[in-house]
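Researcher: Sequence recovery benchmark, item below. Answer with residues only.
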């Protein structure tokens, strides 16, 4: 699925406080949007708006095909990794991932996603409770959540959080693979998290 993603004059406020305003971008396939800014500037809020988790105070986010066909619901075309996303600690990765697929009304065999699970070093721990995992392993499960349905849009909030050097290299590889056909949105305090970007939104200035 070939998609384009745009944000048009986005604004978000809480009570009388304006978090950000007049934010616009337009992404085509194989492009990256980098969102930067100090802590508290609204990076995660903007990520939530792009993902459809929050509604903007003003403006809109539009995902559209280059063809004139309708786009499915946002949750089916987006993969999201973020520190505020929670998994069911009592469940195993297998159970968590099965739940993620059911929410998206999608069917996928674990054989078909075996290369992804192996790359994320989860294949041998699919049936262990997530509560027994380190923070780095939990982050890998989040990436499995985000990528199991091969989303055309991958959205990452602080993508290297809780990862060691090997995990960071793995995430950079996954980001590179996403850009073969899809779009990438990255919010981070460290711009070295991305090797290159096509557009940048800097908040808090």
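Model:
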């Amino acid at each position: 699925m070939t998609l384009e993603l745009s944000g048009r004059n986005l604004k978000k406020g809480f009570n009388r406080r304006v978090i950000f305003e007049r934010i616009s971008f337009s992404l085509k396939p194989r492009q990256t949007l980098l969102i930067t800014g100090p802590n508290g500037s609204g990076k995660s809020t903007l990520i939530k708006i792009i993902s459809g988790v929050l509604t903007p105070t003003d403006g809109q986010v539009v995902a559209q095909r280059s063809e004139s066909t309708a786009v499915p619901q946002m949750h089916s075309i987006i993969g999201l990794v973020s520190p505020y996303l929670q998994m069911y600690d009592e469940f195993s990765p297998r159970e968590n991932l099965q739940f993620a697929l059911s929410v998206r009304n999608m069917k996928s065999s674990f054989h078909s996603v075996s290369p992804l699970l192996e790359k994320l070093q989860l294949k041998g721990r699919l049936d262990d409770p997530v509560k027994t995992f380190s923070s780095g392993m939990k982050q890998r499960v989040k990436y499995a959540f985000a990528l199991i349905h091969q989303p055309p849009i991958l959205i990452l909030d602080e993508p290297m959080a809780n990862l060691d050097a090997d995990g960071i290299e793995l995430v950079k590889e996954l980001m590179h693979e996403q850009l073969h056909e899809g779009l990438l949105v990255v919010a981070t305090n460290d711009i070295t998290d991305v090797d290159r970007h096509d557009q940048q939104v800097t908040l808090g200035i």
